[in-house]
Amino acid sequence: MSLRLYSSLAGYVTWFILSACQPSTTEPTSTANDYVLFEKGHYVIYDVQEERYGLNASPIQQQYQRKEVIGNPYKDVTGKTAYRLLRYRRSGESQSWQLDSIWSVRMINNEVIRTENGLDFITLLLPVRNESSWDGNRRNALGADTFTARNVTGDFYVHGNRFDNTVTVVEHDDSTLVSQDKRISVYARQVGLIYRERTQLWFCSTTPACIGRNQIDYGTRQIYRIRAYGYE
């Protein structure tokens, strides 16, 4: 074997070994069903904690359970396939479920769209990548609102249970002396939404004595925590 050929082969083998030892920086490709399951009969049950504040009134606190079930597919006004999202509520596990609303979910191009009370929100943008951002309100008239994916493939704990391969979507996280607006959703691969927080509070700012003390005048705080999931 010539010295030139031997050197070329040795160089190639060295490159191959070094390349194999390098950690991959490519995030796994995600599909719609990774984080939002478009499958009829798939359900998730949540424990919901809710607090409502009003001026000169005691806070109203509620705890109940919410069940969301993927229903039958149908064609929306654009001819795209969408799925009914059947939403049930009960005060506790000893009570029967009561259907109280029907929303919908669908996939258009690389956007996962959830329709809530007639408004379309882009909840995820695929493929899911860390620090990727999009306008979650692009399909409604509420004004631009930047959503950001974070902690992609990280672990998340709910009720002491560990969920791996999750993504946290920060829809808004802003706090000032006069208000707080925090909205985040956490999705787990092959499960769906496992945690959701909606905090929108306005603090007292009418007198110097109350400014900066986080004294709540009015607003709401709502937290969803997954309790169970499966198929009906």
Description:
By secondary structure, this protein is mainly beta. Helix content is 10%, strand content 56%. The chain contains two helices and twelve strands; from the N terminus they run H-H-E-E-E-E-E-E-E-E-E-E-E-E. Strands 6-5-4-3-2-1-12-11-10-9-8-7 form a twelve-stranded antiparallel beta sheet. Residues 1-29 have low confidence and may be disordered.
Topology:
Layout: H1 3-21, H2 32-35, E1 42-53, E2 60-75, E3 81-90, E4 98-108, E5 111-116, E6 119-125, E7 133-135, E8 146-158, E9 161-175, E10 179-188, E11 192-203, E12 216-231
The percent range for helix content is under 10%
Structural class: mainly beta
Number of domains: 1
Q: Provide mean pLDDT, rounded.
A: 88
Gross morphology is globular
Main sheet attributes: strand count, strand direction, barrel closure:
12 strands, antiparallel
- Strand tally is 12
Rg for CA atoms? 23 Å
Low confidence ranges: 1-29
Kindly summarize this structure in a few lines.
This protein is mainly beta and 232 residues long. It has two helices and twelve strands.
